[in-house]
């Protein structure tokens, strides 16, 4: 592999904005690693882009650990890690690890993956962790004593919004902890792209497929544009810890998004729950 090649890892790459971003970022100067939940859906994207495909179901933390080991075994360094996998899920169900699925799939799994790949990110000299968040963070509420919504009333918009708020808190946690390694992090709301997003939540899925959706959603290509732009920009200290609404810094944020107790507490609890401590 040529030394000028950049290594980009992109999760949630088998469809939607992830697949579009994969096609745009592919090329001779990029060592592209794609992650998806379905090998059948990921295979044609990988073949088209010349990328290395890995599959993992984020509802199983054991698969996330295996994924991290596979990626670490295939590259010496990572220039850009794009945590794009996620979605909305029925909060009444539980993952294989016993967690509320929006919490695990949108936050805990990428938290674990990113931490397990930290040495590869540091080895790049300077690197970027980009977390796909959402304006839905405004509907979230992080309670460090009830991360799995065991006691609070759980409904789709609230549990999803909470997980997306966690993506922003995690971004700030990286920005505060890993700058000495020149690992920078940003979060981005890509916009309401008309994709298969919400397929695991009946209510959100219906909303996205309704006739009025075309008036309030943007195209998947428009949704992928910020992801592509940040991946091409790469490590940049000036965006460290910043939440973007598409290309614009300082998007609309939940009032908890800068709460230092939550930034630290969520990191500590997540490390405990994923066995990193």
Automatic annotation (TrEMBL):
Q: Which domain of life is it from?
A: Bacteria
- SUPFAM superfamilies xrefs: NAD(P)-binding Rossmann-fold domains
Q: Which organism is it from?
A: Gordonia westfalica
Full protein name: SDR family NAD(P)-dependent oxidoreductase
Entries under Gene3D superfamilies matching the protein: NAD(P)-binding Rossmann-like Domain (3.40.50.720)
**Alphabetically ordered keywords of this record:** Oxidoreductase
Say yes or no: keyword Oxidoreductase present: yes
